[in-house]
User: Which sequence fits this backbone?
């Protein structure tokens, strides 16, 4: 099989109880690419991400990560697959009783035997990379929503996992911070070969970083478009996709 | 990977330098440098294939420690990709970062704790005042009160608590009767078990045990519910809509607690007596004897004073539970703290109030 495919979603159906959100979708994520999942609010992007990281069991189909099926993996095998993934949830999901430094240090503490000063130094460096050097010792409740988001990204990057999942990393950030974040993502992808799977709505940021996007549409319960953002904007035959990229409202019904 | 030709220390680092593989390198290098400082460290990094954030930090730290002692580091053939990351990391590192907060001394802690305790008592008094006003308002303007909510809470705090109250009450009557029957029998006075159990149940144990159950079940639940709402900023949402959280959330809960306490206490009393009756019957007395003995020894005043007490206990449990909920700070553990504090303060208040009632009833000879 192709070794450059890191994640392969095969004929997967995602559903809550009886409500099917995504029906029989398939796609692949290549090593080192920045892969963006697009779609309207509530169409199942976060749900798709949670299926890809094995948090939810698909109703049908399978998800392969590094050539191993995460839907059937159990115990230590599953643990091994998961330890290669970094995840930032849409809500941040920082541990409220820990300071930011402790939040980022936790995975380092658990998975390495580095001495204490090294752990602190690495965690602080990650937080400084997302511009939070001044808030190392604050707890999540004491910082703003955008800062929580950035801290969550720092925690996802703590171990520099080969694959990073980010659910709306730039939502709630100002344009400058969001552009800085884009630059960081690009550098990590280029220099460390990290693969990114990003859920995003920010068209400008998608243009800047995305290698490939897939677009979900709730009406077909699946993928309506795949490709480079520039290509989709210019010449997708699906009018909804063109509207999305050109920020047009649906045509007025008078 | 440590070799020493002349005065300098030469390191050859190859392969992957990542957070999981860094530990031995870190230990070896910094231990060696701590034991025998060298004027110059030369790192041959040409064969590095991967160097993640932790690895980058290692190079930064190496350079920082050497420079702090006026010594040098020379990184040779560092792959350009990683050099970019190192530059980025050093650039952000030079920005200001926060100092760790200093912890305060024992004396300061003690003083702060004392001040907090006094403030806490003050808040409780103020809160009860605010609550009484709100309760009076609710009774005067019944249409503004959310009776449906209160009714749901009555169901949760009252009906759902019935099984445990009945069980504890019954067992308590049973055990109390059994334990006192043994010494009383030696004096041939075992029929007075009925007097002992019925008096102590109706006046003391029934209200007290029920109150402790309510504090553990519903006091904690009130604090956790309101605490979670506070953490999720739902309380702020209420306030900005112009709705007073005390009227909206607290009044209903306190009213429900005041309402269910006497009812639950009645059940505890009743099943306690049934438990005692079972023991007395098994001692060979007919049920009618037990009944007459109970009726002769307790008066309506005993029952009513117990029920009055239980209403006050309900008020205390409900209000302190809600107060602790409103006082919740942020974070997941804060809700747990609020629930704990609600139960502890609730039980303390119950016991204090019970003592005051004992003194009061003694003076008015009830
Ligand atoms: N735990 C759940 N149980 C039932 N339905 C759910 C659950 N979580 C989400 N849903 C439903 O699934 C749909 C997709 O949710 P999801 O969170 O994946 O949306 P999304 O595409 O990430 O939206 P957004 O851009 O707003 O974050 C929504 O309609 C939501 O109501
Ligand atoms: Mg989402």
Assistant:
């Amino acid at each position: 099989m192709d070794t450059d495919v890191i994640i392969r979603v095969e004929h997967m159906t995602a559903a809550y109880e009886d409500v099917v959100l995504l029906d029989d979708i398939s796609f692949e994520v290549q090593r080192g690419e920045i892969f963006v999942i697009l779609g309207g609010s509530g169409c199942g992007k976060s749900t798709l991400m949670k299926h890809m990281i094995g948090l939810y069991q698909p109703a049908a189909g399978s998800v392969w990560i590094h050539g191993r099926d995460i839907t059937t993996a159990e115990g230590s095998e599953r643990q091994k697959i998961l330890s290669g993934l970094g995840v930032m949830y849409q809500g941040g999901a920082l541990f409220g009783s820990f300071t930011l430094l402790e939040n980022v240090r936790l995975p380092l503490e658990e998975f390495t035997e580095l001495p204490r000063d090294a752990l602190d130094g690495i965690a602080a460096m990650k937080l400084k990379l997302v511009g939070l050097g001044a808030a190392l010792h604050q707890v999540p409740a004491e910082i703003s929503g955008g800062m929580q988001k950035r801290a969550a990204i720092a925690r996802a990057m703590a171990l520099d996992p080969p694959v990073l999942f980010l659910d709306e990393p730039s939502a709630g950030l100002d344009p400058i911070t969001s552009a800085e974040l884009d630059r960081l993502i690009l550098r990590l992808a280029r220099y460390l070969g990290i693969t990114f799977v990003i859920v995003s709505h920010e068209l400008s940021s998608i243009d800047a970083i995305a290698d490939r996007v897939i677009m979900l549409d709730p009406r077909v319960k699946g993928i309506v478009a795949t490709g480079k953002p520039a290509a989709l904007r210019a010449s997708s035959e699906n009018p909804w996709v063109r509207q999305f990229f050109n920020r047009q409202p649906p045509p007025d019904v008078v | 990977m440590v070799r020493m030709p002349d005065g300098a220390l030469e390191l050859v680092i190859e392969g992957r330098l990542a957070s999981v593989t860094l530990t031995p390198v870190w230990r070896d290098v910094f231990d060696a440098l701590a034991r025998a400082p060298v004027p110059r460290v030369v790192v041959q990094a040409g064969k590095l294939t991967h160097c993640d954030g932790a690895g980058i930090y290692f190079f930064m730290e190496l350079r920082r420690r050497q420079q702090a002692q006026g010594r040098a580091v020379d990184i040779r053939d560092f792959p350009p990709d990683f050099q970019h990351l190192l530059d980025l990391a050093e650039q952000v590192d030079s920005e200001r970062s926060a100092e760790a907060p200093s912890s305060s001394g024992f004396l300061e802690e003690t003083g702060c704790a004392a001040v907090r305790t006094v403030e806490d008592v003050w808040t409780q008094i103020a809160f009860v005042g605010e609550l009484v006003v709100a309760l009076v308002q609710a009774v005067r303007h019944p249409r503004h009160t959310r009776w449906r909510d209160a009714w749901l809470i009555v169901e949760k705090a009252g009906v759902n608590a019935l099984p445990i109250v009945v069980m504890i009450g019954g067992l308590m009557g049973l055990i109390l009767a059994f334990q006192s029957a043994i010494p009383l029998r030696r004096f041939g006075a075992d029929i007075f078990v009925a007097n002992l159990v019925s008096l102590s149940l109706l006046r003391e144990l029934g209200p007290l045990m029920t109150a402790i159950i309510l504090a553990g079940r519903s006091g904690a639940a009130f604090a956790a519910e309101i605490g979670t709402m506070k953490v999720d900023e739902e309380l702020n949402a209420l306030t900005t809509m112009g709705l007073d959280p005390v009227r909206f959330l607290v009044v209903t809960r306190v009213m429900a607690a005041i309402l269910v306490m006497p009812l639950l206490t009645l059940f505890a009393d009743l099943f306690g007596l049934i438990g005692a009756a079972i023991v007395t019957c098994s001692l060979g007395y007919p049920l009618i004897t037990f009944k007459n003995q109970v009726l002769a020894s307790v008066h309506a005043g005993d029952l009513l004073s117990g029920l009055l007490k239980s209403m006050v206990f309900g008020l205390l449990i409900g209000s302190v539970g809600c107060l602790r909920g409103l006082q919740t700070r942020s974070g997941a553990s804060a809700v747990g703290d609020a629930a704990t504090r609600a139960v502890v303060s609730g039980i303390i208040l119950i016991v204090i109030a019970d003592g005051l009632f004992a003194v009061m009833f003694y003076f008015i000879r009830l």
